[in-house]
């Protein structure tokens, strides 16, 4: 008689993580807890992002800062909030952030994981009400539990990531991640404060008809990139470029497409950061059946040297990235 009460209302992230953990009997639950902490950080940043438009008129809705402090920039706020969530969560012993030069030790030296983040990506879009995102990458530490994390924990290489993903603050807020067993997507329900499973198995279409790059850099692009893009145009593919990596990537993940950030005069090694932009998105794309290249190798095979090193990035549908690769190899 009470059947209607038992009818599923959707799987929350919490429940999903619990179920998955049950499938791995020897898992200790620490990675699960870390993913929950990241989701919490996402909710907090989502709140700040949503409020951002009101910040300039703070007085109008009674939120004026009594100390008269200057409104902090959203990317700075996101950085602080994210690190705080990880510190309070306890599973991450250290964090590497786009916003900070050096490793941030959380004080949880017992934590088994380290996390690299771009807390709020899409700098040109942050203050103009256009989609932005958070990107994260997780490693199991290689240093002894109980000691302080070191550079070695972060410089393990892309294939050693145990989980990676992103949060997109778009028309809806979504969390998309992989733990190496496919890619799942959750959509945030703000009135309930919960992420719900909306995309249980994300696969990128093998072929696509969308290319995403900053064409303003055309005259800096290597010849092979121009050859490839010219081919896209001859086939009347669509050009789509938000200028927020997470947004461009997310669209291509769902509809099929390729995102390109080649080397330019200004950024001779590419613009995107290997550890917290290229690596995590490359792991997600490979897990979704797509492909991610840098110059000369798969992104995940690049040997990391520096925390903030950059890479070229050609990422998306398998067939498109392979076609680009053919142009690049023909030029060699
Ligand atoms: P950021 O980390 O300073 O925000 O830079 C990364 C962003 C990406 O989100 C985006 O894809 C790219 O830079 C856009 O660069 P450009 O404005 O050169 O096209
Ligand atoms: Mg960034």
TrEMBL record:
Cite the Fructose-1-6-bisphosphatase class I N-terminal domain residue spans from the record.
Answer: 12-200
Q: Supply the name of the protein.
A: Fructose-1,6-bisphosphatase class 1
Q: What are the required cofactors? A: Mg(2+)
Q: What is the lineage of its organism?
A: Bacteria, Pseudomonadati, Bacteroidota, Cytophagia, Cytophagales
- Positions annotated to bind substrate: 121-124, 214, 241, 259-261, 271
Give the enzyme's main class according to its UniProt record, as a single word: hydrolase
Write down the Pfam families for this protein, in alphabetical order: FBPase, FBPase_C
Encoding gene per record: fbp
> Which of this chain's residues are annotated to bind Mg(2+) 2?
118, 121, 277
PANTHER family to which the protein is assigned, alphabetical: FRUCTOSE-1,6-BISPHOSPHATASE-RELATED (PTHR11556), SEDOHEPTULOSE-1,7-BISPHOSPHATASE, CHLOROPLASTIC (PTHR11556:SF35)
Species of provenance: Hymenobacter gummosus
| Stretches assigned to coiled coil | none
């Amino acid at each position: 008689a009470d059947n209607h009460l038992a009818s599923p209302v959707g799987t929350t992230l919490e429940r999903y993580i619990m179920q998955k953990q049950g499938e791995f009997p020897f898992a200790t639950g620490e990675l699960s807890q870390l993913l929950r902490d990241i989701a919490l950080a996402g909710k907090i940043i989502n709140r700040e992002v949503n409020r951002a438009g009101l910040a300039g008129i703070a007085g109008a809705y009674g939120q004026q800062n009594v100390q008269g402090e200057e409104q902090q920039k959203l990317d700075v706020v996101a950085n602080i909030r994210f690190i705080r969530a990880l510190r309070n969560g306890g599973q991450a012993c250290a964090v590497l952030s786009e916003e900070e030069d050096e490793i941030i030790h959380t004080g949880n030296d017992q934590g088994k994981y380290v996390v690299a983040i771009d807390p709020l990506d899409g700098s040109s879009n942050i203050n103009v009400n256009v989609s932005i995102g958070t990107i994260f990458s997780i490693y199991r530490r290689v240093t002894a539990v109980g000691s302080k994390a070191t550079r070695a924990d972060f410089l393990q290489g892309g294939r050693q990531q145990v989980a990676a993903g992103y949060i997109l603050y778009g028309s809806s807020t979504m969390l998309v991640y992989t733990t190496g067993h496919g890619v799942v997507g959750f959509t945030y329900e703000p009135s309930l404060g919960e992420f719900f499973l909306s995309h249980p198995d994300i696969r990128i279409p093998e072929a696509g008809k969308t290319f995403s790059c900053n064409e303003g850099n055309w005259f800096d692009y290597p010849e092979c990139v121009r050859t490839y893009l010219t081919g896209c145009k001859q086939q009347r593919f669509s050009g789509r470029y938000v200028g927020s990596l997470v947004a461009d990537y997310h669209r291509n993940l769902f509809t099929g497409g390729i995102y390109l950030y080649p080397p330019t005069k200004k950024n001779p090694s590419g613009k995107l950061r290997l550890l917290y932009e290229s690596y995590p998105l490359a792991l997600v794309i490979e897990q979704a059946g797509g492909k991610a290249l840098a110059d000369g190798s798969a992104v995940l095979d690049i040997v990391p040297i520096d925390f903030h090193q950059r890479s070229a990035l050609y990422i998306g549908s398998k067939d498109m990235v392979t076609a680009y690769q053919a142009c690049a190899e023909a030029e060699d």
